[in-house]
Design brief:
This protein has 131 residues and is mainly beta. It has a single domain (5-106), classed as OB fold (Dihydrolipoamide Acetyltransferase, E2P) (Beta Barrel), CATH 2.40.50.140. The chain is 8% helix and 49% strand. It has one helix at residues 55-64; strands at 5-11, 16-19, 25-38, 44-54, 70-83, 89-102. Strand 5 (70-83) and strand 6 (89-102) form a beta hairpin. It starts with a strand and ends in a 29-residue tail after the last strand.
Length: 131
């Protein structure tokens, strides 16, 4: 059996850091992940996916990620249920992160950030190749 999810998206708000009664850190945030296709109006839509991360990584996420930052999440899908105060059964779908990578540049705003030299041609000659 395999339950693996890899996502890249932007945070919709700052991560929320909490601690369990045992002192273990847990952070949660929502990642907006663009869909590959555009809707009838020619606009991209996004899926908003709840992420949960534990331990030191949770503290790192709370310290270094913020709304709008680009992040990659590698984890597993978890679906759990609970009974609400009204007695109705509620279901929660979330990704429990095993690894979170910060993809935005350090400091400052990264709106419109694009990695350098992606999809652009680089001019060089055979003499530039070291082998």
């Amino acid at each position: 059996m395999l339950n693996r999810i890899i996502l890249i998206g932007r945070l919709t708000k700052d991560p929320e850091l909490r601690y369990t009664p045992n002192g273990k850190a847990v952070a949660s945030f929502t990642l907006a992940v663009d869909r590959q296709f555009k809707n009838q109006q020619g606009e991209r839509e996004a899926d908003f996916i709840n992420i949960v991360v534990w331990g030191t990584q949770a503290e790192n996420c709370a310290n270094y990620l913020s709304k709008g930052k680009l992040a990659a999440v590698d984890g597993r899908l978890q679906i759990r249920s609970f009974d609400g105060q009204d007695g109705q059964r509620r279901w929660i779908t979330e990704v429990v992160a095993d690894n979170v990578r910060f993809l935005s540049p350090k400091g400052g705003s990264d709106s419109g950030f694009e990695p350098a030299n992606v999809g652009t041609e680089i001019d060089f000659s055979d003499d530039d190749i070291p082998f």
